[in-house]
Batch of 4 targets.
Target 1
Amino acid sequence: MFNFDEMYRTPHHPTCNDNWYKICDDWNYEYQTRSLAPKETINPEDRIVLCVGDSFTFGDGVYYKDTWSNKLQETIFKDYKVINVGVRGASNDYITHVLSNWCSEYGNQIEIVIAGMTFSYRRTYYKDRKPNNLSVGFIGSDKEQWFKDIHSSFINMQSEENDKENYNKNILLIRGLGKICNFKTYWWDVERQINPNLHNLHSNLIDDRDFTYTPLEIFSANSQEEREIYYISKDDRHWSSEGHTAVANMIAKHI
């Protein structure tokens, strides 16, 4: 039997590849979502709550039943189908790309989008129609030379101005999709939750009833020592099941 606990608590995690996803609990390869059972389909009458984001949305380190998206499914969204399409390592460009694809197919059924924006320094590069998510300062020695060259270019272009422009562009895209498809958006960002003193990346967009920034106060209200309980380990830095519960409660509070 596969040992998830052992896998998530080792310093070196497996790469985000097909084999990893196939053994991940509740992973649906066809829909590229973690929250649909293999034989389940989306019915025309289903009202959808779509959760987009990176590994914090995906729920790295915990079973799907313990993720904040599933906790919302079991509480305030019992009458909806909550679908988690978080992608480990995704950039903000890729998060909006995933959302756009789902809007194209299910836009008339999506009523709420919960978007967890990721680190602003991440970028997405496409090769052979496959996305490659790049993070400044993180590159494996096993990567091909073309990948290393592209990574180097992104490092050279990386600046606070470029990061902020890219970040705000994607927020605008999500807001625009909400206007087109008539869904409500609740969004937050990982960087400000990990570093509550970070202010320079917050978009200047004005919130309204259909587009609302939802800060996760559990991180800014507690001390660094207290916040540690919301992470799996010092190696992983993702939320524990207790952290996911707290996140779900904060999201529910704003909604």
Target 2
Amino acid sequence: MQYIAGYEVKETVSSSGSGAIYRAVHPIMKRTVLIKTQPPEAAKSAEVHKRFQREIALAAQLTHPNLMTALHAGLDNNVLYMVMENVDGIDLQSQVKASGPLPVATAVDLLCQAARGLGFMHEHGVIHRNIKPSNLILDKTGTVRITNLTAALISDDADVKKPTDELTRQGQFIGTGDYLAPEQAFDAHSADARSDIYSLGCTLHYLLTGKVPYGGGAGQRSAMEHMKSPIPSLCVARKDVPPALDAVFNRMLAKVSAERQASMAQVIDEFNAATKGSTAAAPTSASETNGGSNFPLLAILASLLFGVGLGFAVGKFL
């Protein structure tokens, strides 16, 4: 029987480059929580250890309904850990893989929630820099939670406590290539709120088509596609996408950041305006969604309640 900081570990939820996630129960309080432990590399790398410390500090300072809530943190056998609220849900990448592309109205609703959480972060001077479907968790109440602040950038005028040491070097690649804004690919320091808007736009494409906007690939190859390839059309991929929503998406993926929406609040307004009163929001046949799913939001939540064969697994946090 494994224990971490007095909590009895019940299962391993995920294990990735940003650390392992466990579901655990306090034997006296009977409270179920998620516990994230530092990645093994942290024992050998001071930078990895500091980055995990940084994630804990940010999670503790940023409280919002669309963010994961940190309860406390500490050391157990020289392993740094963070205790978080237990979120029963599924990451949006796993949801799409399990059930196919989402209905337009559902995808927009989920990303409006994510945009509210990101807007809150931006207001406090924090840029996520790694927005993608696997870092967005849909819980059984229908609430989207943003996870993984490992790559977050803290601005000089942020009202959260900024560490004295700078972990991101000039020109360093931070984030995930398939969802990375062009300006962020070659200089992570250049990322701002509009970089997260770009990544959210790429996420919209995935939720509606089951594919990343461009061909995919690692490192410089993927970055060049984002910089030079034409922005794909959602209307071509799916007949039920309103042209107005395609226009919003096109602006989110503008190659030059100044041509994108100025804030997450503007993204939300444009999402709502583009889909308001649209009769195309809920497709009537699988062929209309290019092979996608017909599940409305309630059906998605129902599938979560029955596990979707995934046992309420919280997806990879990185």
Target 3
Amino acid sequence: MAWLQAWRLERRKAWIQRHLGAELDALNRMAASLGVKSVQPQDLVSYWQVGKATWTSDWTLANAVESGLKACSALFACIRRRSEAVSSVRFIGVRRKGTESTPVDVTHPLQVLLDHPNTYWSRQALIGRLVAHLDLKGDAYLSKVRLSERKPPSQLWPLCPDLVTPIPGGKGEPFVKGYGVKTADGRELPSEPAADIIHLWYDNPADDYRGLAPLQACGRSVDADVAAADWNKAALDNRAVPDFVVSHAYPLTEEQWTEARARVREQHQGSANARTPWVLGNDAKITQLSLTPVEMDFLSGRRFNREEIASVYGVPLPLIGDYEKATLNNLEVSRAIFWLDTIIPLLIGIASTLELGLAREFGDEYGIGFDLSKVSALYQVLQGRMETAKGLFSMGVPVSQINDRLDLGLMPFPGWESGWLPANLVPVGAVTESAGGGLEEEE
């Protein structure tokens, strides 16, 4: 009978809970008596983060592209500027020996991988996609493809961040033990080992496994700008005039109401009919309901949204097409500021992550740098620094120290760790003071 089966199930449940509870209490008392605790990185993470598989947000990558990138011109301009700037810089593999660093040969597997990540994506396309993923989602992922398990990767492929989920490790496991990956149609794939995924992200103080996109900070400005553009388009499509009510002094039959409504739409809907004369029946009156674009300060509102979006992404307004106050001089300054304050820090972050997740595959002595020598926006800035560098060089300061101090972006070369005297450019260590007080060369 049903009641008898239910009674038996309840008794079985109570027995299991009683015996398992006693066993668990015994294990807890044993662990406490040992007094030993192994601290893992996961123990230092807020308890609510552990096991948090996904970071859910209204601004998924798909939504960011559809409702942001395609709909907001200011957002599109910022993303494009940043992606094009970063992808125009060539990443360089370097080999460190002691305090010296030298670029690897162009045929070295690390440099080949940086220049030609796979058979489909060029270097510029791959880096540009990574920056777009970072700017829209806060995370970017690269999948390593190996010819065999023990060899370094031979190809790099970008992954959609909406389809990748970091898997936090437990006690005794790596901080991230793997990555869950889905296909575009939602099918679960076998999890990827952490060693086969390079995860780039913008720091998120509230989550140690997911990044925080700039779009999260300026999302409301993007929404407001899109809504303002939609409002303007709707106004043009419907009448190209403010909202109003047409009222009559006498009641209308349903047929008269339908006829009047059709006439209004026919004669005054669409931008071609904007500001055309109104022809109304007897005793008809128009009452305006909405504010005019001037009262709404329409243009100023859109300009404010554009300024806020550009500010969050670190892009000066003249670089996204706002030339209202632009001059030749401040255009050059804007380009230099864009590179110094926005692009170079981003390049440093990408290079450091690639060095940790990619260059070390080829050996601990390998690293990754980047070449800024072809960035014309920095020429004026570099010119001033070069004058300072000449003064330091004439004092015998090594080029390597000058490069680090002034951030010249120079690549290492043989002998740049040595200081030189300006007279005949002999190494500083090659001269000593003679007994008569002069200088003579050492044998």
Target 4
Amino acid sequence: MNDITGICPQEDVLLETFTVMENIEYFCGLKMMSKDEIETFSNDVLDRLSIQDKKNSFVNTLSGGQKRKLQLLIALSGNVRFILLDEPSSGMDPTARKDTWDLIKSFRNDKIMILTTHYMDEAEALGDRIGIMSKGQLKVCGSSLFLKNKYGLGILLEVSMKDKS
């Protein structure tokens, strides 16, 4: 069965009184994945996201970053072709963000992903095309290289100090 959409919303949609594995089994079961598919997929992704040791922990004991990882795992599960990721690495430390980005990159083949973020480094690392919105309006869209050529690399701030002696 082909699922149409995977969603990683900004708000937690996890079952707080279930364990990590029970959440995975429940949501992957809704996507008609077999027990073997769920076990293989979850072991691989839990390991890649460095939360294998949380497998039997209740969701309400997880940190915010660990909950984001679990929601991402659920969004990527099954045979989804279209994935919406709303700030998938928010609340994560730099190492966890890098692991998350690597996982997202590994799932990009033959899928359409739309990702929202406030971080240009995340957009650049994960996006083939970047759209910039302001006040609900799309202002510009293009590759990272196109945006850099059109708008420059950012703001350069120079600070010089005079010696008061």
